[in-house]
Design a protein that fits this description.
This protein is an all-beta fold. It contains three helices and 44 strands. The chain has three domains: 395 residues, TolB, C-terminal domain (Neuraminidase), CATH 2.120.10.30; 61 residues, no CATH class; 75 residues, Immunoglobulin-like (Sandwich).
Length: 561
Amino acid sequence: MFTRRICGFLITAGILLSSIVSAQQWGDYTLYSTMNGTTTYLIDTNGTNFHTWSHTTATKTGYSSYLLPGGTLLRSVSRSGNSFSGGPICGQVQKVDYNGNVIWDYVYSTQQYCTHHDICPMPNGNVLLIAYERKSASEVSAAGCTQSIEMWPDKIVEVEPVGATGGNVVWEWHAWDHLVQNVDPSKPNYQTSIVDHPELLNVNYQTQKDWLHVNGVSFNPMLNQVAFTSHNMSEIYVIDHSTTTAEAASHSGGNSGKGGDILYRWGHPAVYGATGTQILKVCHDAHWNPEGVPNAGYLGAYNNQGISNNASCADQVAPPYNGYNYSIAPGSAYTPASYTLRQASGGYNSNMGNFQVLPNGNTLLCIATAGVIKEFDPAGNLLWSKTTSGSTPKAFRYDSCYVFNAAPAIPVVSLSNDTLFSTPATTYQWYFNGYQIPGAVDAFYVPSQSGNYLVRITDANGCVYMYSLDYAYNVSTGIATVASNDFVKIFPNPSSGLFNLKGLNADERFDVTVSDITGKTILKVKATNSLDLEKYENGIYMVTLQNDRIGSSFHKVTVSK
């Protein structure tokens, strides 16, 4: 995934030692903005202002500020004159260079829609936006809702910046396209059982104008998926971004085969009628833990009332990955039943807040409403604290290499004969269907199986990563084909470390290679029907299974004890 939730960019752990201020702290600079403030701050580890961006009173900072490689600021703007109100309404987004020049100023606000809360920079230079869209009382009733009221369901749009003020909406997903109700069989979206359709949103659950109140959005370039959090539902969701806009409005298509339906949801099983404990209680800041940090691939959310009604925490969960989908037993809740990791914030946020897992295992937490930013070590010891001058929705830590070095150009993958080639770069790492391919670190890769391939490269300084787009490859006639992952099963997943293997004939064995999330090989064994990883730490591992009949099969497994 990607280091911190800059949504597609990565600061490599290989150069981190030069950025550690002490034996315990990580990074050089912390970025934050106060809500509705006119200044964005980049402070050093002493809490001293290193750099600031000044904004006009007409363009006060909204909910989110992110730093792009090379020191460009991406920020939401609290625009005046929006037709929507409440929550952190924004309606505008800007890019501001290091010298304070506004290089992109885009408005996404009309009578029918308006951006709010979070934004997310993507590796292709586009930006994900969360927006309300207005539905009339008649539209709400016609969708099978028992309430005849105006509602503002959320949508997520991907905008391609054009010029100084323009933007093309190149992809969008609407919550309103993925509804279910079990009240009125004469109306759309009717199903007899809500729990049997966790891929859909119950339009009659806690119906109100600001229905979902989505407040955080993140992009995973390896899986080509989007995660978002809902304040009102107290859940984190995952959807397929590989779809077209038309597929995103449907129930089929994309890498998952499920269109825009929900692939995974976690935190509050009762929302979809399942039995289980509510873990998230008001939540913000959806993100994946990136490559280069402990427990890479875990999903995270800031849990505002996770410990108690007045004590917040940061929760991480190990999702039940199954290729581009997520395993679930029919009629049950998505696993795991509880959080995989938790870090108390040492304070309370009634709303807002975020956290960032750092490459050395530390955690940066932003207690937004108190205006306090803290860094904890893995044992929960407070290492660093900064009190800001107002409510601070988010804060992020960066090293100096990231601040001062621009991102490399997006790599392009091309095919020549039977080989995939990347455009030139300093280092390379190839992936297949969201799985890191162990040892695939050259400028080229010879694929053996049909599916999606992408490459991750670094810049000349080795400190900023960039991901290519997926390359859909079909095995050609004359190239030996291998079975897809569907023919080989590893289960249960996640597990405490003991996995069952299925797909062999009675007299066959697998050559098994296990790598950690960095691509380092940690185990090579021969196996028939089981794999033992109990001695290894919690986290995500890549498993390659090979034999003469099956060929190669790549799997992502999660050890969660």
